[in-house]
Amino acid sequence: METIRDVMIRLGAEEFTGRSFECRYFSRMLEAGTEGTARILNVHGTGGIGKTTLLTHFRRLAETAGAGFALMDMRDYMGNPELFLKDLASSLGGEFEISTVDAARSTMLAEQIIEHLNSLTQGRRIVLAMDQYEEAGSIDPWLRETLLPRLGANQLIVIAGRYPLGSPWKLSSLWRRLIIDLPISEFQYEEAKIYLQRQGVTDDALIDRLWLISSGHPLSLSLLAVNAGSGQFHYSDKKEMHAELLPYWLEEVPDETLRALVYAASIPRSFDLEMLQRVMEAPLSGDVFERLIKLSFVRSSSRGWQLHDLVRDAARQTFRKRQPDTFKLYLERLTAVLNERVRLKMAEGSAAAPDIYELISHSGHPILRAHFRHNRSSANYWEPVTDQTFLEMENYIEQRKAAAKSARIICSDPDSDQWFRYELTAHERLLRLTGWDTAELAAFGLDSFRLLRGPDGEVLGIAAMPPVRPETLPYLLRNPISGPYFRKLTGEHHLQESGLCKFIFAVDVIDPESRDLRSDSVNLIMELVLSGALLIACPPELPFYQDSHISMGFEPVIGIEDPYIYSCGIQASAYRLDTRGSRLDAFLKKTANLREKIVAIGEQHPMNQQAVGDSLLNQLTPRELEVAEHIALGATNKEIASALFISEAAVKKHLNAMLYKTGLKNRTQIAAELLRSRTESGPTRQP
């Protein structure tokens, strides 16, 4: 007779999704027996990532292979080795009387249980799996020094927890040789899609949205799927998910000091000790900061450390709701710190790009903010093409044409809750690889090309961007894609000013659905932009390319005669972005809201602070003050939206917020109040 437990096991097996690599690795270790040295599989990942579900599936794999399996929840033993041993023996078919009378009796019990466990390994493998290992406490040294060394060599140990095994394990070269590190990450898009479909969510657009909200985090997907399966998903469901998950993660953060630090760290995308001290305006001990960066949902980055995307979103949402004034103040301080860093680095001639990207993530175009929301340190890298690697580039292009496939690209800006979804057919994805020839461009030098390589050396993308100079101009004039743009110009206009100038035929990656590869593409363009260059591009007139260029600051070029028509009748558009000389500063002010000079925290708004303090506008946020400035100049909502890179709906939202805070009746009164405060205070003095 099938029991309810049997039904639950069967349903669990049917629902299990993804983790194919982890399961294959476990199965190989199970089959290996005493071959090799690896004996311990260390599964680790942040809360809700699916460790317990994976261990349950490991049990099914082990039982199918005829192996014994003991799953131990480390929360149950309260640091007591005897309870652990008795439960372990019981789960494998042994019964022992637990004694608490004296140390000698306890030692005898341990000897008996270890002997029993080793006897079970005669003829079959035993898997000892320990879940919630972060709760092991004082059992950890006992396991490492007493129990595990005495177990049979054909036993497989699985240790799962929020953190990788700590220093006492890693300091020993012998333990290091026995341990295989197996970090667990979020679902990829296809895995998340399969999971949601199994939960009854079948609408592709809704699946895309849930995947973005959850970042592929399994527990988040499970919570979202409850309402989404009935088609009743609302924005409030996202907030409820964040509210439900945050306490789960904050179980790791028992004291208020560390929790306050987590909330402060949710403001920037990446943080370091000095940044948090300046944002909070409070000294932080190295010990407290060390505890922060050791949390399971904090990861290292090229710029310091970052919170897990979901933890950051949830903490920011809670922080903004519970302490709106403090949240606003921290954000203002962060902006001031970043402005200072950018200005100083630019003056020194050192790389300011990471801090500029951080600024853009708070104040740039919503699509660019959506991109930089998930822009992480990539293991991929761009390199120049050489005579030795030229053939690799050609092979990449041929392979792309031979195995073309469609792509769905989705991203979101959480601050404005705007969603962006693009679809490219297989044919449309090949358009930018047509209309130019590698051999013809190579004749002018290989500096026209770049290769994108992965950490294992595989080619993941290419860029074709010939420089504009006297020897390349004839080719660019006759090329069907670039020719219409250059024929529009009189003489050699682009060559009259010094500085780098490039025409972008293509920046192509093997999988544009990959966040990392999209980041690599944007970072290449931004690298050129920040170096001071004139960039020209004539991509197909498709929404994905149009929005990508506009969001990065490119300006459309109007009046191109006889533009190139790509195959299937798609016309080429034209864009240019010039950051040579002083234009770079103007670009940064527009795109990243970089300020004119380094200012103190109390001097951040464009209008005189004393004037603001004395007026009804003292309650407004920096963004609302910017909107007010444009209103005073007579700009329409559409013009304000364009100038500030926000939607018209966001302008209306800011306007309504200003009217509510000030008690004013309309935009005319806002403009009058702004002008009154300035008139009464006189001109703002520069320090």
Automatic annotation (TrEMBL):
GO terms for biological process: regulation of DNA-templated transcription. It holds the Pfam family AAA_16. The keyword Transcription applies. SMART domains: HTH_LUXR. Residues 613-678 form the HTH luxR-type domain. Keywords: DNA-binding, Transcription, Transcription regulation. GO terms for molecular function: DNA binding. The keyword Metal-binding does not apply. This is HTH luxR-type domain-containing protein. It comes from Paenibacillus ihbetae.
